[in-house]
Amino acid sequence: MVGNQGFRTFLRVNGDVLYEPFKQSEDGMVSQRMIVSAWDLELEEVNRTLGLQISVNFFPLVNLPVAGLVRRVGIRNLNGEPLRLELLDGLPHILAFGMTQHCIKVIARHIEAMKKVDVIDGMPLFKLKQVPLDVPQIQEIRGGNFYFTLLEGDGSISSDSYVVDPESVFGVSWSFDYPWLFAEHGVGKILASEQMYENKTPCAFTVLCPNVSPGKEVVFYSIVGNTSSEEKLRSFKKYVVDNGILGKREENRRIIEEIEDNMFTVSSNKNFDSYCGQTFLDNVMRGGMPVVFRTQSSKNVFYLYSRKHGDLERDYNYFVLEETYLSQGNSHFRDVNQNRRNDVWFNPDIEDSNVIMFFNLIQTDGFNPLVVNGLTYTARDLPALAEWLGEIVDDKRLFDELLALVQKPFTPGEFMMKIEEAVSAGSLSYDEIVSALLSFCRENDVGEPSEGFWIDHWTYNLDLLDNFFSIFPERLKEVLVDKRVFTFYDNPDIVMPRNKKYVLVDGKVRQYGAVKRNKDKLKLIRSRAADPYKVRIENGRGSVYTTNLFVKMLSLIANKIASLDPEGIGIEMEADKPGWNDPLNGLPGLLASSLSETLELTRACSFLQDAISRIGLEDYEFIPIFEELDVFITDLMEAIEERLNSADENRRFGVCYTYFLNEVKRYEQIYLDGDKKEVAVNDTGLPLVTPLEFKQKPVSLFLEGSVHLMKVKQELAHEIYKNVKNSKIYDEELKMYKTSEPITRESFEIGRARAYPPGWIENESIYLHMEYKYLLELLKTGLYEEYYEEIRNTLIPFLKPEIYGRSILENSSFIVSSAFPESELHGRGFQPRLTGASAELINMWTLMTAGEQPFFVDETGSLRLKLEPKLPDWLFTEKEEICMTYTNKGEKIELTVPKNCFAFKFLGKTIVIYHNDRRKNTFGEDKAKITHYTLKYTDGKTCRKDGNTLPEKIANDIRKGQITRIDAFLH
Length: 971
Hints:
Layout: H1 2-5, E1 8-13, E2 17-19, E3 30-36, E4 41-47, E5 52-60, E6 67-77, E7 83-91, H2 101-105, E8 115-120, E9 123-128, E10 144-151, E11 155-156, E12 162-163, H3 167-170, H4 180-192, E13 204-208, E14 211-212, E15 217-227, H5 230-243, H6 246-260, E16 265-266, H7 270-287, E17 289-294, E18 299-304, E19 331-332, H8 333-339, H9 343-346, H10 353-359, E20 371-372, E21 377-379, H11 382-392, H12 396-405, H13 412-419, H14 430-438, E22 441-443, E23 447-448, H15 460-471, H16 476-482, E24 493-495, H17 498-501, E25 502-505, E26 508-511, E27 515-517, H18 519-526, H19 537-540, H20 549-562, E28 571-572, E29 592-594, H21 595-615, H22 627-636, H23 640-647, E30 651-652, E31 655-656, E32 659-669, E33 689-698, H24 703-712, H25 717-725, E34 730-731, E35 736-737, E36 766-767, H26 768-780, H27 784-794, H28 801-804, E37 812-815, E38 829-832, H29 837-850, E39 855-857, E40 863-865, E41 881-886, E42 892-897, E43 901-906, E44 910-915, E45 930-937, E46 942-946, H30 952-959, E47 963-970
Parallel strand pairs: 44-47
Antiparallel strand pairs: 1-2, 1-7, 3-4, 4-5, 5-6, 6-15, 7-13, 7-14, 8-9, 9-10, 10-11, 10-15, 12-13, 16-43, 17-18, 19-20, 20-23, 21-22, 24-27, 25-26, 28-29, 29-32, 30-31, 32-33, 34-35, 36-37, 37-38, 39-40, 41-42, 43-44, 45-46, 45-47
Helix pairs in contact: 6-7, 7-8, 7-29, 10-15, 20-21, 20-22, 21-24, 24-25, 24-26, 26-27, 26-29
């Protein structure tokens, strides 16, 4: 389909030879190559028979009010004689704006009657004539998808050089396999034909007839994009004609480079260095890039780019990106949470914003909404906002539109798209406008009720805490106790009690329909004028209930303790959804439980116990806890130690189980009457039962359990590592770690993972995210030798590209394991890039480069900074390296990194160079240690500090970005 419906180039050479480049060819006189960078894609074909070199480069438009993809086409004459070309370039099939998935997939033929092509200032604009809904209120469609071509050096081409009717090119053949009419008649017949501008699925081709001199190249740019209005399209064309498009290519490259530069790395392995930058970029695409807008009294943290991970290989994830400046998209709690885990390491200015946001999405029952939308705001001080707005907007109509906009949920990008024409050039920067605007506004809820509740989502909040306190350790009491900004998410979806969800199916007890939407609760939520999804006092009708993080965590812990299975080993999957391993979607129905979350519960308890000790809270000190929680905690805390100890015994061959099935051996039916004549049933008619006796059975071994066990049993790390490697989880052929051992003994009821073939997706494949989680724990538990031995076979930049099957600078969701029946695919990566593995790699990188706790509070209560890299000798440079990086002011500079060094950017701002002349590991008994530092401030001042620990003032200066470079000397 891509070969026929994607971008095509047709050439008639000297009036007779038809040639289409970039088709699969066995002709030895034709060579092709593809060049993939982080910022663009380039294809090149050389046809030595015809003496032609064709290059195509794709890059996106940036920082403009319209969205578009630019296609640069260059055709070079390699002959000694001039060439006369007739050329068609573009798309055989372009979608009209306004089409839905239903239009595209279900009524593709019928919807053609509503399609039309308008010509706006010489450019074709593709759209439906009206919104395709069968309703009495008819809506016209504004805007459209456009196609526009610009000749390098000559401006835009004329309107009669576009073809929008595919029959003019392909004749009546709609397979698009061969341009019959073009091949037979050339461009003359096409341009003379009467094209159909409606009632047909259009194409978008540019017609050119260049004469190319020997050694010369003809270049043109085609832009396919979307505009919200015809006025914006006209303005866009004028901008492009006046300014050209090449500058946007460089601007796009710079934006990408600056994002990647946050994870700037210089080692002995250039693939690893590039992979680090690419991984940071991919992490931003899913988790977002934080931007801080400051006001006089506060600051607002806003995330750009964030969205769900959907692409052509991962077609099950639907995502939307806002078509504005400061664009953001929809996401899921787990995805965006884990991809923001390390953000405070790269931008300390965001402080505890993510801790607050994600803990505030936790409900009173310990669950959370699935969907996390982009940030919106609503005016809270409308008179003050109106006064400020009147100072910068003179147009009365626009003023009224903007004032109406801010009275309902809006995004900063939406506001800026409207206001930009009214603000004179250079009077105020966009940052200044947004910062001022947000000072009059309040943030709206980002959570959205969806489908069921996953049992693992809350655990990622613990990672946010760990990372925040690794940068701001002195703020423990402030964030945990003093800050009363924490709320509970109010969800209309509720988890049903057992007597409403345990049902009898073919003589077996199952758990179905565990989550229901409470209509009365939903009505109450919708009646609230502000903060509708925040829990209130007075049965939901009073003010928003606020508390501190300590109470919030106690509430969470109490709920999870209450969710332990009958054996006290795993957390029950009581709410229709499993944990991290989504394709085990049948486990909740089988009354399954998971050890992973029990171990995370232990981790949460340990965090609070340690925090209480460190901040000096005594048992008698009063911390306000709402009454119900106090009773809950008291009744349940006594059992936790016994239950956790029992978990250690549930293992096979030294590897702990992850999941357990809790089979009901005895039960009694529930009746609606005392005579037991009317059986109680659920919404689908299945009889409801009460369980009386359970029998627990472990599911096959999964890597996940060992990952979490390492977090709380670090003293067992080496034993766990050894046992996992000796189990069937380890792939001997690939020297990688699979998600699980074979699961063929399990019932198909465990979920779709059982339906996948072994070695594919989550069924016994190398699922990169989980394998990287495992590698991270090796590093965290101090198994440095083992970690560096393993990453040579498991980390993507160290793989063989011919086996991996794609760029070794990009992650995949999974790698086909040796369990897969088709051996040719073993080691091949599938479903690219946007994966949680990026968060794990970034976390590994922070530990490798700076250590787990660079900032700490010493015994006197003073802040200190101590860099403790965990780097092997072979990652230090083997020769002097000259590379490019960006300063805090956005200036691109050249940096020289000497031999025997390792360089990286600390906290996204400070260049750190480790000098290791003896080329020793920085871990182990004979490790190289830092003996002294030299530091350079932004004002050029330098200083030297002996020892491996920096004092409070310097630590604060580094955290604030006031030190541009640190040279650390090891011995």
